[in-house]
Amino acid sequence: MPQPTDPTNISDHSHSPPETTPPRTTPSGTTPLETTPSGTAPSGTAPPGTTPLETTPSGTTPLETTPSGTAPSGTAPSGTAPLETTPPGTAPSGKTQGTPRKRPALGRVPFLRTLSADLPASLVVFLVALPLSLGIAAASGAPVMAGLIAAAVGGIVAGCLGGAPLQVSGPAAGLTVVVAGLVEEFGWPVTCAITAAAGVVQLLLGISKVGRAALAVSPVVVKAMLAGIGVTIVLQQTQVLLGSKPAESVLANVAALPAAITNVELHSALLGLTVVGILLGWKYVPRAVRRIPGPLAAVVAGTALSVAMAPGVERITFNGSIFDAVALPNLPDGNWRGAALAVVSVAMIASIESLLSAVAVDKMQNGPRTNLNRELVGQGSANMVSGMLGGLPVTGVIVRSATNVEAGAASRTSAVLHGVWVLVFSALFAGLIQLIPLSVLAGLLVVIGARLIRVADIKTSRRTGDLLVYVVTLGCVVFLNLLEGVIIGLALASACVLWRVLRAPIHIHPPAVPSAPWRVTIAGSCSFFALPRLNRVLHSVPEGRNVVVELNADYLDHAFHEALLAWQKQHTSSGGTVLLEEHGTTVFKDAAHRSPQRQESREFPLPPRTTWQSAQTVPSADAASEEYDDVERLPLRSILLGIDKYHRRYADRVRPLVQGLADEQNPDTLFVACVDSRVNPNLITSSGPGDLLTLRNVGNVVSADGQDASIDSALQFAVTALAIDSIVICGHSSCGAMKAVISDAEGAGNKNLGAGFDAWLDHARPSFRELVDGHPVALAAEASGYSRVDQLGMVNVAVQLRKLEEHPVVGPALAAGRVQATGLFFDISTARVVLVTPEGIEHLDPSVVRGPGAAGRTNVMGA
Q1: What torsion do the CA atoms of 149, 155, 160, 166 make, to the nearest 10 degrees?
Q2: What is the pLDDT of residues 112-141, one digit of tens each?
Q3: Which residue intervals of 429-504 are DSSP H helices?
Q4: Nearest CA to 804 among 705, 674, 692, 717?
Q5: Is 320 left (phi over 0), alpha (psi -120 to 50) or beta?
Q6: Helix crossing, 294-309 with 438-452: angle to 10°?
Q7: Which of 316, 541, 553, 617 is spaced 20 to 30 A from 159 at the CA atom?
Q8: What is the rounded CA–CA span in Å between residue 247 and residue 236?
């Protein structure tokens, strides 16, 4: 099985098998409703404290039985709800009262059902974990067997108790530098006590359900931390590879490197370089050979060469078996503060690395997701046991976990079995371990450390503006220590976030021509932090000039509000004008009388001009009159101001949308709407330029062939020339045309509208007769609480739809199915659209209650 290219990068997802599909997402706190994929752990094996996979999102259990092949309800784990309800008169466990319980068939036992997949996967993971555990122990300055103890405990304890079904735990390179420092400062027995205490902290964190909170760490800090660890490991193990003793610090290792090269021990260097070459070239060997884990092949080859060619090279030494290496921890003689800080450091780093690794593993497979709080409990328990037995700290390790997934593991059984194999090998074949040269493990660790330094992470941090955080964190980890480096990196990342969030871009734009106003654009979070820049920019505007202030703020406090008003007052006193345009999510005037808050965007849909223009501050009426009113009237000025706003704010955004429509149009719908100014067809249909061919007239009517040339030509052009797919007739509430029809029928028509308008009403008068005769749409609208005018408006839509069927061009297209016709009614008071059919109406958004007598109203269809 091919090995992952990056064994320790916990954010690398490149190991995901190509045939897997992304996991289905479910509501927060719930589990998928379907059974687990073939080869994964069955729902009946859900860990204690979790919800079975067949539970509903609300946390209740379905009434039906479990799918074929899943564990029976009686096998639900402790702390979970059963997968099915028990019939009356049966025992809670699922067996009938008074009837002996039958032993389940072997095929229904979860362990045996997945063993065929888990057993070979566990062997592959064992072969990968063995050399890595030895190398990490050697690099940490701990007894070699401590790495194998941690591997066995991580596999068995964390595998049984953890919340990540396919994650494999053991000693990790991420804690190598920390452990080496603890061994140097406190000694190995006290380091074991620190490991056990860190496990207690992790256990408490898991019980406190703060697992997800531990993920609130900037990824760039984690990547830089791993890179810093990689640099430290490479420099330290290079000394071992050359046959020298590693120094205590990075600077000391760098300073000693020339002497180590000069006094190189040739056999050690050749063996170490051989291992490095094998690991780097392993991906190029034939696929059948790559089924052997690369680290195992490199260590075996290096060891075999040393036995044959360099029998005197320094090797791993220890006394007895893994059971002889078990040792109880000791409490520190002093420096309790340093020990406490070390406990917190180990707990935090191990928790973060384990949780991020678990998240990465979740993305590699489509089985059950990780319970992060339970995973902390499992990791804490493993570290308690490992520390008490004399083992290294345990974390979730991405290289073993990725190998586990790629090897086809189906459940946590694979991780547990891998721990068993480590234990058995260490007990029975410990003598073989003592044949491994230290330089061979050093070559293995040099490659592992180098793979922690990923060029892709550096490029990503540069693109995302986090390069400074990456470099500072890496440098502090290398030259100070891991904990201080991470803390400094987190502090710097937090400062960068505050800078980006609190910084308000404020810019001034001089006019292109002298007669145009100056522009000041303000965006982002407008708080007192931005006042220095605000004052500097505003006071750079020449006195007496007209200014447009475009405010696109998502947050605005009182101090910013006062500063802008103070400048406005000062500027207008010099003879200038200030127009304030708001395009963001806050309301400028609200900052004067309530606490700052973020609001929903009100810029789209665009508000009517009467709202956003009246809200603008035009303090000098005389100045405004001199600029505009002597030349043109207010309505035209409003249009021109709107066009100016369009050019400044939207033209560049609209251009890409219409460039493809410059030479021809291809609408799919003819939209027949009333000329009423309150109806916006593109808005209520979420349509863009080129989608709708719009025909607007008084009363949204259509005519028979030859009755009106403008309507008839639009219908024929849409159907024959543009080959539209649908025609929509859209009426609206409180329609003036419908009011005129009713007034005309009651003898109170307005003769001042002229003969042309009176003739036009002939198109809509048949609708009134249908209303009087009890049209089904009228009955449905009346039952829904609509007024008589709105009832007529809906009936008019239905009548116009019927006219389309009689049209000589549209009718055949409708009959042949080439075109479909739809009736809509826009209720202005609720801003909702109602579907009108020949038989009745349907509220497309029934959750909206309309009118005082419409409470609890549901869709109503006419008889």
Answers
A1: 160
A2: 777 888 887 888 788 778 777 888 888 888
A3: 430-433, 438-452, 455-463, 467-479, 482-502
A4: 705
A5: left
A6: 150
A7: 316
A8: 7
